[in-house]
Amino acid sequence: MTGAPPLLQMALRVEQDIFVLRQRGREVAAAVGLEHQDQVRIATALSEVARDLLLTAGGADVAFSVGFDVVAGRPVLYADLAPVRPLPDGSYQPQSGAVARLVDMLGVVAAEGDTVVRMSRRVPANAPALTPERLAELRAELGSTAPGTALDELAAQNEQLIAALDEVRSQRDELEVLNSELQETNRGVMALYNQLTEELEETNRGVVALYAELDEKSAQLRAASESKSRFLANVSHELRAPVTAIIGLSRLLGDSASDPLTAEQGRQVELIRSSAGDLLGLVNELLDLAKAESGRIEPDWAEVDLRALYGQLRGTLRALATRPEVELVVEEPPLPATVRSDEVLLAQVLRNLLHNGLKFTERGEVRLRAERRDDRWSLSVSDTGVGIPPALHERIFEEFYQVPGATRVGGTGLGLPYARRLVMLLGGTLELSSEPGRGSTFTVTLPTGGA
Ligand code: ADP
């Protein structure tokens, strides 16, 4: 129900009234704020329905009013056509099915006890507000304007038709413009796609080339490393015989059975012998390292008894612990003290670490421990010696590297790289934690079940 009094009322009795109704309908629609298109729609629907009612019910009383929709409270324009004679079957079906689509709603409703044919169209949100004052104003305005003649309405209808045609044409033009824009865009997208594909292929080619180069470089690196190991192995092997001969000969020279030497000669021969001894040590270590690097050392896997191994190290290294201020402590490994490993290689590693500990510790202790955690053994050698600055923790594992300064006490700088190689062969790791002045701890971690 619309509530407020109608904006405009008129009677539909003869054919000419159809034109008037059409014209007035458009005026009302314009007055409440419907857009041009909607004005034409409602005017057209009105004239169609009016024609039907004139035929079936002898005409109608028409009332235009504004109501507000229940949900959004938005204004809606209603046109109620109360038939002069009751509608056949009390219902109404427009002759043309398309009429219903011109408005939001078209159908028969009961209004104030009567059956009316009602159509409605929502007023757009941007239309001026339809306050009761504004509605009263509109009512007055619409009442004062006189309806035009049928000819006027025909002219108006023609104008509308031309405008509608123009609109259709302009829409078609717009569509053409849109189409050509779309084609343009498509061409652009295709060009972009082609460019991207090309760039991708280019990048792929680059990556492939890079990989090939990388493969080649690694092969070169491998070859270089192999030839270095071979060279070291050959040189040290070749050097061993003459160096051993020098040691033997110098020992012979100093022997009491040989011709006596002057004191100075004796001192020099002893110097030769000890230098040759150092050289032999270096040659042997080089040979070991070269062998480990070239993969020519095959661990002899067996169940190793750590307690026996530790006992043996305790015995052999005691001879090296010559400083009374330094105690060598070998702890008893916890049971079950077994690990699958190569006993000789493992002993070599631990001996090397203990030897270093004793070499670089002036007072305190050097301690060998064994700890088992889950399926790993941690075998650690810790000392209370000079310690190593953190920045050099990795460098001391490089061949020939020795920490510079007053702490140098002979040696070759090959012991730790060799030890690490061996531990890797045994499937473990060799790590260091140390700080200058606070001693060092080297830890060999091994899987209990071997590599
Ligand atoms: P070398 O002992 O024959 O010099 P290594 O490879 O065994 O060769 O050790 C390299 C260097 O690492 C040593 O020269 C020494 O400077 C440092 N280093 C090794 N072990 C210790 C340690 N326990 N305490 C302090 N410095 C150490």
Automatic annotation (TrEMBL):
<dbReference type="InterPro" id="IPR005467">
    <property type="entry name" value="His_kinase_dom"/>
</dbReference>
<dbReference type="GO" id="GO:0000155">
    <property type="term" value="F:phosphorelay sensor kinase activity"/>
</dbReference>
<dbReference type="InterPro" id="IPR050736">
    <property type="entry name" value="Sensor_HK_Regulatory"/>
</dbReference>
<keyword id="KW-0597">Phosphoprotein</keyword>
<dbReference type="Pfam" id="PF02518">
    <property type="entry name" value="HATPase_c"/>
</dbReference>
<dbReference type="InterPro" id="IPR036097">
    <property type="entry name" value="HisK_dim/P_sf"/>
</dbReference>
<keyword id="KW-0808">Transferase</keyword>
<dbReference type="GO" id="GO:0005886">
    <property type="term" value="C:plasma membrane"/>
</dbReference>
<dbReference type="InterPro" id="IPR004358">
    <property type="entry name" value="Sig_transdc_His_kin-like_C"/>
</dbReference>
<feature type="coiled-coil region">
    <location>
        <begin position="151"/>
        <end position="213"/>
    </location>
</feature>
<keyword id="KW-0175">Coiled coil</keyword>
<dbReference type="Pfam" id="PF00512">
    <property type="entry name" value="HisKA"/>
</dbReference>
<dbReference type="InterPro" id="IPR003594">
    <property type="entry name" value="HATPase_dom"/>
</dbReference>
<dbReference type="InterPro" id="IPR036890">
    <property type="entry name" value="HATPase_C_sf"/>
</dbReference>
<dbReference type="InterPro" id="IPR003661">
    <property type="entry name" value="HisK_dim/P_dom"/>
</dbReference>
<keyword id="KW-0418">Kinase</keyword>
<feature type="domain" description="Histidine kinase">
    <location>
        <begin position="234"/>
        <end position="450"/>
    </location>
</feature>
<keyword id="KW-0902">Two-component regulatory system</keyword>
<protein>
    <recommendedName>
        <fullName>histidine kinase</fullName>
        <ecNumber>2.7.13.3</ecNumber>
    </recommendedName>
</protein>
